[in-house]
Amino acid sequence: MNYIRNLSFIGICMAFVVIALGAWTRLVDAGLGCPDWPGCYGFVFWPNDEVEIALAESRFPMFPYDINKAIPEQVHRLFAAALGLVAILLVYLSFSRTDNKSIKRWSLFLLILICCQGLFGYLTVSLNLLPIIVTTHLFGGFATLTLLYFIFLKSRNFEIFNQINISNLRFISAIAFVILIFQIFLGVWTSTNYASLACADFPTCQGSYFPEMDFKNGFNLNQEVGPNYLYGLLDNPARVAIHYTHRISAILVTFIFLILMSRLWFSDAAPLASTLGILLLTQITLGIINVVYVLPLYVAISHNLVAACLLLATFTVNYLAWKK
Question: For helices 270-292 and 297-322, what crossing angle results, to 10°?
Answer without folding.
Answer: 160
